[in-house]
Design goal:
Layout (H helix, E strand, L loop, with lengths): L37 H14 L5 H37 L4
Length: 97
């Protein structure tokens, strides 16, 4: 069997399996989800949350201040760019107030 580039794959590899060889069904559509109890799910969620490395208060404060600084700088930049374009357009259109 060959792929779209003409490369050969031995029969039985994952690349050579087609939907016709699977009886016309898609791989993903034929599987049903495993049932899990809500209690087990919450236990797993808690275990995963404990693996997270949470930022310290200082890291959060510094990051928040950097976000505010970047928003302020972007606001100044876009205000200046807007005013410059306003002046250019009014000059080109000959609109004098």
């Amino acid at each position: 069997m060959t792929d779209f580039r003409g490369e050969h794959f031995p029969k039985g590899t994952a690349a050579s399996v087609s939907s016709f060889e699977l009886g016309g069904e898609c791989l993903f559509g034929s599987r049903s989800m495993a049932s899990i109890s809500p209690f087990k799910f919450l236990q797993e969620v808690r275990a995963e949350a404990q693996k997270v490395t949470w930022p310290t208060r200082k890291e959060t404060t510094v990051t928040t201040m950097m976000v505010f600084l970047m928003v302020f700088l972007a606001a100044i930049f876009f205000f200046g760019a807007d005013q410059l374009m306003r002046v250019a357009v009014t000059f080109l259109l000959g609109i004098h107030s």
